[in-house]
Amino acid sequence: MSSLSASNTQHKTGDLAVSVQNLGLTYTTAIDRRPTLKARVKSLGRGTKQTRIVQALDDVNLDVTYGQVLGVIGTNGAGKSSLMRTIAGIIPPTQGRIEVFGKVSTLLALGVGFNPAMSGRANVQLGGLAAGMTRKEIEEHFDEIHEFSELGDAIDAPMRTYSSGMYARLAFSVAATVQPDILIVDEALSTGDAHFKEKSFNKIKELRSEDRALILVSHAMATLREICNDVAWLHKGKLVSRGNPDQVIDAYQDFLHLGKSSVIDEDL
Amino acid sequence: MSAPLQVYEPFRAGLPPLRKYWRSLWSRRTFIAEYSRSELREQHFDSIFGQLWLILNPLLLSGVYFLLIVIIGGSGGALRYGHLTASLFLFYLISNSLSGGVKSVTAGQRLILNTAFPRMMLPVSATVIAFFKFIPTLLVFMIMRTVLGLPFGWEMLWSIPIILIALIFALGVAILISTINVYFRDIASFLPYLIRTLLYLSPILYEASALKPELRILEHINPLFALLDSWSKAIVHAQTPELSSMLAASGWAVGVLLIGTYFFLSREREFAVRL
To answer: Does any domain span residue A6?
Structure first.
């Protein structure tokens, strides 16, 4: 289990932050969105399969060191989110091994939140406590989170009343203000309005530092070219290439037969 | 190079490293407290009328059932009413834990998909909430039994270990049913029937001693039978419960908790992909 308050060690540039070794991940997912006993009983004897096997990641090797800002690119279903979840310890790997040297904060696709009926404030507190922070740590950061999110009084309103932009803003603020050693951001940079987009972009730039590792999953190629010093390209669960952002992104865009069209390059 | 803080490796069907798991669970006890509190606040139990409802609801229920007993069974009496109320209150501790626990994991979907934490916190919180709801009813019963003129005695202290056993049982069923609900989401719709059946099979509307000989088998197949019988003996009649009943109740409780925990822990790491 990851714990945000577990490490006090200083990390130096070049130290290993995350080591992914021969990672393989296979899911067995239910075909029904809502698996029920009724459906199971009805399909008895008919031999219909209730599950589907998905190979999400296949023999991925990836080291991330402190000081690195790694962009992860790939088409939909390439395994980007699965990789992020396994690094965060949310999904256990099927094969291989992952070593994490530091405290991880995640901002994954679904964003912060626990119970939409509860207020933003309660959700932030519960999410932080679940992640292993202490009440004091959360209180220390709360004003900062609140201010950065620009939610104002809405912080005490139930989260079901939030717009998706407000949701994303709060989620980003939580992940960015806890000062983690390793920050994983999954497709959250292109949410919110232009103003908040720029704000979060600047925040990410600010978070780049010698003693931190950032892993960003994004489809915004222009952003990645600007922020990252390393890019990994995943395709169908395999690591295709890794290295200089411009080279890898160029290769990826050639692969997509899209060239540097403005539609995919403009994103920020 | 320092040792890695976290290592994630494949698991075979089986349990995670237990000691590490408990430590991780224990370090998040503030989450459990905070979650229970906000959930109670959610259900308005922080307001005066909310708390009043907490007491009124079981009282009204016991009143309705008492009416039923008097009309069908033709007998009333203070002891009978005391037995009914006390038993119903303890039964509600378990049924609240069940109905709160059933959706605890599936409702925590967002959190589960975004954060790594010991998932068992969710059903544990459900039991804590049920216990918080139980406390005021216990106070109400203590007042009521004084008014009804039921006997007092040191034997009533047996109710303390009985509440503990009930809590263990409640936790066990919450953990078990929350796991089942991940795989069969419609369990939540069957639950009211299950609870209702358990209610009638348990010595609540009747006393354990009043059971017909041919129905004696219920004592052995209903996991709540021995527990509720001991509870009524201790807190209503102020008598020492039978050792065999206490042992049977403890056996059921620990058994359910062990099975539930094993089931939960061995499946827990799969929840993120099942939700």
So the answer is: no
Distance of alpha carbon B235 from alpha carbon B142, whole angstroms: 9
Residue A203: closest CA among A162, A159, A145, A245: A145
User: Domain range holding A215?
Assistant: 16-20+63-265
In a domain, A101, yes or no: yes
The string of pLDDT tens digits covering residues A138-179 is 888 899 889 988 888 999 998 888 888 888 888 888 877 777
B244 occurs within a structural domain: yes
Residue A171 to chain B, least CA–CA distance (Å) = 11
pLDDT at B162: 97
Residues of A in contact with B8 (CB under 8 A): 86-87, 89, 92-93, 97-98, 100
Predicted confidence (pLDDT) at residue A267 exceeds the cutoff of 60: no
Mean pLDDT calculated for residue range A114-128? 83
Residue A113 CB partners (closer than 8 Å, separation 6+): A123, A127, A159, A167, A170, A171, B110, B111
pTM of the predicted model, to two decimals? 0.86
CB-closest option in B9, B31, B272 to A91: B272
CA-wise closest residue to B62 among B148, B128, B165, B127: B148
Q: What ipTM goes with this model?
A: 0.78
Beta strands (DSSP E) in A74-114 are 95-100, 104-107
Q: Which of A2, A6, A126 sits opposite B38 (nearest CB)?
A: A126
Over residues B214-236, the pLDDT tens digits come to 888 888 899 999 999 999 999 99
B21 located within any domain = no
Q: B27, A110: Cβ pair inside 8 Å?
A: no
Q: How many domains does chain A have?
A: 1
Q: What is the pLDDT of residues A224-243, one digit of tens each?
A: 888 898 999 998 889 988 98
> Edge-to-edge strands of the sheet including A95-100?
A51-65, A16-30, A95-100, B6-8
**Inter-chain contact A92–B28, Cβ cutoff 8 Å?**
no
Q: What is the DSSP letter of B72?
A: H
- Does A191 score more than 70 pLDDT? no
CB B260 within 8 A of CB B176: yes
How many domains in chain B?
1
Q: Which residues pair with A62 in a beta bridge?
A: A20
Q: Which two tokens stand for residue A45?
A: 């004897």
* Cβ–Cβ gap A135/B269 under 8 Å: no
Cβ distance A83 to A108 under 8 Å?
no
Measured distance between the N- and C-terminal CA atoms of chain A, rounded to whole angstroms: 35
| pLDDT at A33 (0 to 100) | 62
Contacts of A140 (CB under 8 A, 6+ apart): none
CB atoms near residue A61 (< 10 Å): 12
Question: Could you tell me the CATH number of the domain that includes residue A183?
Answer: 3.40.50.300
Intervals of chain B under pLDDT 70: 1-3, 11-14, 74-75
Per-residue confidence (pLDDT) for residue B81, from 0 to 100: 87
Domain range enclosing B154: 47-274
Residue B41: inside a domain:
no
Question: Is residue B30 a part of any domain in this protein?
Answer: no
Distance CA A140, CA A156 (A): 18
